[in-house]
């Protein structure tokens, strides 16, 4: 039954992508982030994202829907990052393996650029936020309930055959999405809806803790700190954070506390030492190779050459050292520049849109995007999610929000002189919006 239901949804998204490609972008994002076909019985290997993405690209050029090809610092920097990845590809140490991941990353980044062309309205931003929340919230809410029912004795894992299959990766995804859930809650009016979203956010936090991911714990702490700093009443905010934190942590078993305590005694933890060894390998590789080693360098062959301990082979477990080892110092600089820009763009719309009834929602979005970025920056220091779609969708929301606000301000400035026109002109031309431009 679920297979048939998914085929119907795919067919609808496919047809709509030709007529309204912005719907195709939302469909692509859903499949790319959530991978709902992995929940079916017979459709797990079907390339649904590619099908919808192809229809979206055709619709981009054949429909008359609004498109915005304007350049901004974020999409220019993203294109430079894509160009650099293309430049480093021929220098990959393991070309065949690198080429496969290169194709996947280029597809993701291309669709992120297309999203910035096609999405432009408040409705688009709200729908994109809902798609991201539903895609990760499905696993987070379910994982949170599982954690409570089992007393946290078992780890929460992500969907198989996806970027977030591991417990650490799904935990970071959940952490990033919680602020977006808070943003949507702030726009709700019905009490039952707000209450439901509160329950979902609590379950999401429980799922992140239930993953037994130390990086997720640090990411949650970083986000809580940002929220406290932004709050108007810091005392009440601090008390609320402490009470909620104690309530959630009290449900976790002794083995969870033992694992979290290794943050302080990482010298005796094999997993932590393995990560440090991987970071050392990335540093040595980048120093010796200007173009980095290409994708998929986290193998015994490469560790034998550049690893401080050649026998301790680990994945990067860090968005920063992953990019450093694979794309070199130049690639890391571009990557950091890109997300620094997104941080300041989100902060700009948070400040400029604040206090005005028609734009307060955008201020809320900017603030929550910064909270998500704080979680990604801290949690990502210990997890390998450098190229996955979700953080780049935060970029899309920030860019579209800034464009929307700039259009709003431009229209207001364009319309403002009309209020000073003589009264007889108002009577002659009727409503203010019907007045001729001065």
From TrEMBL:
Boundaries of every DUF5935 domain copy: 1-186
UniProtKB keywords: Ligase, Membrane, Transmembrane, Transmembrane helix
Read off the PANTHER family from this record: LIPOPOLYSACCHARIDE BIOSYNTHESIS PROTEIN PA4999-RELATED, TEICHURONIC ACID BIOSYNTHESIS PROTEIN TUAE
Where would you find the membrane-spanning parts of this chain? 43-63, 75-95, 101-120, 127-150, 170-188, 200-229, 235-254, 288-307, 319-344, 365-384
Report whether Hydrolase shows up as a keyword of the record.
Answer: no
* GO MF: ligase activity
Membrane topology recorded in Swiss-Prot or TrEMBL = Multi-pass membrane protein
Pfam families in the cross-refs: DUF5935, Wzy_C
Q: What is this protein called?
A: Putative O-glycosylation ligase (Exosortase A-associated)
Q: List cellular component terms (GO).
A: membrane
Q: Where in the cell is it found?
A: Membrane
